[in-house]
Design brief:
6 strands; about 250 residues; alpha/beta; globular; single chain; about 15% strand; binds farnesyl diphosphate; Undecaprenyl pyrophosphate synthetase
Amino acid sequence: MTDLIANIIPEKIPQHIAIIMDGNGRWANERGENRLFGHSEGVESVRSSIKTAKELGIKFLTLYAFSTENWSRPQDEIDGLMDLLVASIMKEAPELMENGVRILMIGDIEGLPENCAKSLKNLIIETQDNTSLTLILALNYSAKWELKMAIKSIAHAVNNGTLTTNEITDDLVSKHLSTKGIPDPELLIRTSGERRISNFLLWQIAYAELYFTDTHWPDFRRNDLISAVIEYQNRERRFGKLSIQLEAKK
Ligand code: FPP
């Protein structure tokens, strides 16, 4: 297959891409395999996306790996996913270091199994000075959970008099989210044909371009990510303005 990278406009690379990795289970079922096989093949797509994002000069990549709703899946799938996560962290850590990838996590880390939380915390510390790409893993995450935590913390500050309601701006709300300090994603990708946001980054994607593909996550590789970026580059981002106003600014 032809490499699509030549079609990329280097001046219009998004800073931050977020991905809802979906379709591992269906991909496995179609092959007569169990769902965990789909997840473990999905790890290859994670590796490929990190590599491609770095090559394109994308600075932040957020992957929705486990939502707060995913706890309602069968226990053996949850256990398998957590084991896979720990094994992937252990296995990939040296290469992440070599490639200058910094790891961050959004979500409730304390709700994860202890070995998983521990290996994640170690990886976050180990990679904290890396600067080429920041990989943000959304684990035990949901946007409603995050917004609820932010609202509680803002309400607390108002209650104890350290904040007035007039000081509650967009910027202040952003600073109370787990993505504090991370620019909002310009592009949100969801694989596997579903056209939903599923409780992901609701505040942060206010102006993101949404890109849906029928490709299941284990099949999502280099050219798929490049295609999504090309489509993003061909869209007109108006932020509520008219096309004519954007033309006048050029
Ligand atoms: C969605 O497919 C996928 C997940 C909930 C898990 C994603 C996890 C990985 C790719 C592996 C580990 C990740 C890292 C960061 C190393 P699904 O199970 O919802 O598929 P379905 O919709 O077809 O059932």
